[in-house]
Automatic annotation (TrEMBL):
This is Carbohydrate ABC transporter permease. It comes from Paenibacillus rhizoplanae. The chain crosses the membrane at residues 21-44, 83-110, 122-141, 153-174, 195-218, 277-298. It is a multi-pass membrane protein. PROSITE patterns: ABC_TM1. SUPFAM superfamilies: MetI-like.
Length: 313
C-alpha cells in the first residue's frame, strides 16, 4: 500500500500542449471572431441606419450606432393601415404553408425511400426534372387560373406543397435509418401509416426541423406570388408585399437623390423625414425579426439535419 502511494507521487504530470497546438487554437479563435464580426456587422449596420435620422444618414458614416436616434422610420412603416392585417396573413401563410409542406414532403419521402415501391425511381426522376426545367411564368399563371386559385389564400400553399430539395433531404435521412426498425414495426403488425406516424416522424425530427426552417423562410419572404395572383385583393396581401409597395412608393415619390429624396411627414407634432435608404433598412429589420426569433429554437437541429440528410450512407 505504501509502495502504491510512492508510485502515485512519482507519476509524471501530463505533457502540456505543444506550441503548434496553442498557435492553432489562437488562430482558430481569431478566425472565428473575425467571421462573427463579418457576419453580424451588416445586420448591425442596417439596424443603426433604421434607428438613425434619415437626413443625417445621407451624410454617411453610420457604422455600429446611430448618430441621431429616432423611431420616425418605423413610424412611417407601421402607420400604414394595412400593415397589421398583412402581417397576420404572412404569419398565417407561413404557419400553414410550413406545416403542410413538411408533412406532405415527409410522407412522399417515406414512400420513395421504400425499396419495394416499384415507381420510386420514375417518380424521383420526374420530381428532379422540375428542378432543371420550368414551364415559365405565363403557363404557370394559366395553370393557377384554371385551378381556380387566383384571388384565393390557397394560392400561397398548394403550388409549393412539395419542394424537391426538401424531398431529397428527407428521403436521404430516412434511408439512413436502420431498416431493422421498420421491419420490427411490420413484424409487430404495424401498417405503413402506423409506421410513418409512430416510427418515422419521431426519428426524423432533426431533418424535419431543417426543412421547416427552409419552408418558413421561403413563405415569410414571398411577395411575388401576391403580386401575380392577389394584388387586387387587399385582404390577402402579405407583409412583404406591403413593404415592397411602401419602398416603391418612396422611390417613385422622392427618387433616389439625397437631399431631394425625402418624404416629409408629421408625427406627434414634429417634422420628420424618411428616405428610400432609411425605408429599405427599416423594412429589412421588420421583415427579419420574426425569422431571427424562430431560428434559435431550430438551430440545434439544423446542422444535424443537413449533415445526415444531405449525405446518403
Amino acid at each position: 500500500m505504501e509502495t502504491a502511494a510512492v508510485h502515485k507521487k512519482k507519476r509524471k504530470p501530463p505533457i502540456s500542449s505543444s506550441t503548434g497546438d496553442r498557435l492553432f487554437v489562437i488562430c482558430n479563435y481569431c478566425f472565428m471572431i473575425a467571421l462573427m464580426i463579418v457576419t453580424l456587422y451588416p445586420f448591425v449596420n442596417v439596424l443603426a441606419v433604421s434607428l438613425n435620422n434619415a437626413q443625417d444618414s445621407i451624410k454617411g458614416g453610420i457604422y455600429l450606432l446611430p448618430r441621431e436616434w429616432t423611431l420616425a422610420n418605423y413610424s412611417y412603416i407601421l402607420r400604414e393601415a394595412t400593415i397589421f392585417h398583412a402581417t397576420f396573413i404572412s404569419v398565417l401563410r407561413t404557419v400553414i404553408g410550413t406545416v403542410v409542406t413538411v408533412f406532405c414532403s415527409a410522407m412522399l419521402a417515406y414512400t420513395l425511400s421504400r425499396q419495394d415501391y416499384v415507381l420510386r425511381k420514375f417518380i424521383t426522376v420526374a420530381f428532379i426534372m422540375t428542378m432543371y426545367f420550368n414551364g415559365g411564368l405565363i403557363p404557370n399563371y394559366l395553370l393557377i387560373r384554371d385551378m381556380g386559385l387566383v384571388g384565393s389564400f390557397w394560392v400561397y400553399i398548394l403550388p409549393g406543397i412539395i419542394g424537391v430539395f426538401n424531398l431529397i433531404i428527407i428521403r436521404s435521412f430516412i434511408e439512413n435509418l436502420p431498416e431493422s426498425i421498420i421491419e420490427s414495426a411490420k413484424i409487430d403488425g404495424a401498417g405503413d401509416y402506423r409506421t410513418f406516424f409512430s416510427i418515422i416522424l419521431p426519428l426524423t425530427v432533426p431533418v424535419l426541423a431543417t426543412v421547416a426552417l427552409f419552408s418558413g423562410v421561403f413563405q415569410w419572404n414571398s411577395w411575388f406570388d401576391v403580386f401575380l395572383y392577389n394584388s387586387s385583393d387587399a385582404s390577402l396581401s402579405t407583409l412583404q408585399y406591403e413593404l415592397q409597395k411602401i419602398l416603391q412608393n418612396s422611390n417613385t415619390t422622392t427618387g433616389t437623390s439625397s437631399l431631394d429624396g425625402m418624404i416629409q411627414g408629421a408625427t406627434g407634432g414634429q417634422q420628420n423625414a424618411v428616405t428610400p435608404m432609411s425605408v429599405r433598412a427599416t423594412m429589412t429589420i421588420v421583415a427579419s425579426v420574426p425569422i431571427i426569433m424562430v431560428y434559435p429554437f431550430l438551430q440545434k437541429y439544423f446542422v444535424k439535419g443537413m449533415m445526415v440528410g444531405g449525405v446518403k450512407g
